[in-house]
Write a structure and sequence with these properties.
- This protein has helices spanning about 15-30, 40-50, 70-75, 80-85, 90-105, 115-125, 160-170, 220-225, 255-265, 300-305, 315-325, 335-345, 365-380, 380-395, 400-410, 415-420; strands at about 5-10, 35, 55, 110-115, 130-135, 185-190, 205-210, 230-235, 270-275, 290-295, 305-310, 325-330, 350, 355, 360-365.
- The chain is of the alpha/beta class.
- The protein folds into two domains: about 5-210 and about 395-420, Glycogen Phosphorylase B (Rossmann fold, 3-Layer(aba) Sandwich), CATH 3.40.50.2000; about 220-395, Rossmann fold (3-Layer(aba) Sandwich).
- The strands form three sheets. Strands 3-2-1-4-5-6-7 form a seven-stranded parallel β-sheet. Strands 10-9-8-11-12-13 form a six-stranded parallel β-sheet, sandwiched between helices. Strands 14-15 form a two-stranded antiparallel ribbon.
- Helix 5 packs across helix 7, helix 9 crosses helix 13 and helix 10 crosses helix 11.
- The radius of gyration is 21 Å and the shape is globular.
């Protein structure tokens, strides 16, 4: 049996853990030793629900990040985003030390990462096998978040100089781009060539959608009892406030505000969930046709509803498409806009772009949002398109196939790597 460590960018939302937890659970069920690392509150709850070990923060001092969330929210691609996240050399050096200590203490055979550059760097520094689990627009070969734009600006910031300086302290060679360090010895793409297109030359394996659902995924009784005589809309905001009481450009409270403004007087029933987050204090009272829960099992809820409204996270897009349920998306950052536009291009929903106010709060055109909700509910073409995508997704193995690939990779010699990769696209 092998020992696996699952790492991810430790943001306080469920997008990354919901794709890793099913794989980790599958490997643990096969008798492997598995641990995860994400100390943020909401991911910690999801990891605990799955019955998995979440390693504690090492005893080293944890540096305070210093990055501009305005820039993070409007990046062109991963390289640009890393330029905003990792410009502080002291932060990079301190967090690199945290990950190196974590991995030395746990001593995994394989590190399985999703979008944590410094975890990937630490795995390389310790000569550990590295698998990465990415969405298409995170991969080095992708066209980035603004894939519909003709040309990437040449002057965008990069953290390559900072990362290379710290990497050299661990004996690692420089890389021209930070994003190239995400590729992994084995790279699995969550999604399909249809939803997450990459060039045919990309060295990846598509495994299809992966979304965590505990046990049989039964819905709470109160959800099952909501009347189906009227349309049922599931509104998923993700984290409404990343910094409690303080507005940031990446907040998803705009999704909640839009739903309340546009749907409180509608005939629809609304199930509002926030991903193990509490409702913000400014939402002091919900309309009578709204029903709130911090969390419901995503795949079964998506199948149960007539429409999803969400913030454009990749896992939310996968959840709606896997269920064959159309969506109306209010993307709050460019990465989410990228995902939203992919779904809309497949004919499975609509996008409503927010604008930024003077204090950084996102705002929405309520009339546009209301009209698109009604259009997607009433025109069958959106659901038909979503169901066609769902059908095409069924040929991929999801978490079990990802676990198969990672399990084989854990025991493969370098000369076996191509056999481990073969036949997955």
């Amino acid at each position: 049996m092998a020992r696996f460590l699952f790492t991810m960018l430790p943001a306080d939302d469920l997008g990354l853990p919901t794709r890793l937890v099913p794989i980790a659970r599958a490997l643990a069920d096969r008798g492997h030793e598995v641990a995860m690392f994400n100390p943020a509150p909401a991911p910690s709850k999801l990891i605990a629900e799955a019955g998995l070990k979440n390693l504690p923060m090492p005893s080293l001092p944890v540096p305070v990040p210093t990055f501009d969330l305005v820039e993070v929210s409007s990046t062109w691609d991963v390289e640009h985003m890393f330029g905003a996240l990792y410009a502080d050399e002291d932060y990079v050096r301190g967090m690199m030390a945290v990950y190196v200590e974590l991995m030395r203490d746990y001593a995994p055979d394989v590190v399985v990462d999703s979008f944590d550059l410094l975890a990937c760097l630490a795995a390389r520094a310790l000569h550990l096998k590295l698998t990465t689990v990415l969405q298409g627009n995170f991969h080095p070969a992708s066209r980035g978040f603004l894939w519909w734009q003709p040309e990437r600006p040449a002057t965008l910031p990069s953290a390559a100089a900072v990362i290379n300086k710290v990497a050299a302290e661990y004996g690692l060679a420089p890389e021209a781009r930070c994003v190239d360090r995400l590729a992994g010895d084995l790279c699995l793409i969550v999604g399909t060539p249809e939803t997450d297109p990459l060039p045919s030359t990309a060295d990846v394996v598509y495994v299809g959608p992966i979304i965590w659902q505990h046990g049989d995924g039964a819905l709470p009784d109160w959800v099952a009892e909501v009347s189906r005589q009227r349309p049922l809309i599931w509104v998923y905001s993700g984290n409404p406030r990343y910094a409690p009481g303080v507005a940031t450009p990446i907040d998803s409270i705009v999704v909640i505000r839009a739903a309340i403004a546009a749907l409180s007087d509608s005939a629809a029933q609304i199930v509002l969930t926030t991903g193990f987050q509490e409702l913000p204090q400014e939402v002091d009272r919900l309309p009578s046709n709204f029903h709130h829960a911090a969390y419901v099992p995503g795949p079964v809820m998506a199948r149960h509803c007539d429409l999803m409204v969400h913030h454009g996270g990749h896992s939310s897009v996968m959840t709606s498409l896997m269920a064959g349920t159309p969506a109306v998306i209010i993307p709050t950052i460019t990465e989410r806009e990228s995902n939203a536009r992919r779904l809309a291009a497949l004919g499975a929903g609509e996008v409503v772009m927010p604008t930024s106010g003077t204090e950084g709060e996102k705002m929405i055109n309520v009339a546009e949002f209301r009209a698109k909700v009604h259009r997607v509910l009433e025109e069958p073409g959106y659901r038909n398109s979503a169901q066609q995508v769902a059908e095409s997704m069924r040929k991929y193995g999801g978490a079990q196939e990802a676990a198969n690939r990672i399990e084989r990779f854990a025991t493969a010699s370098p000369s076996d790597r191509m056999r481990a990769l073969g036949g997955g696209v």
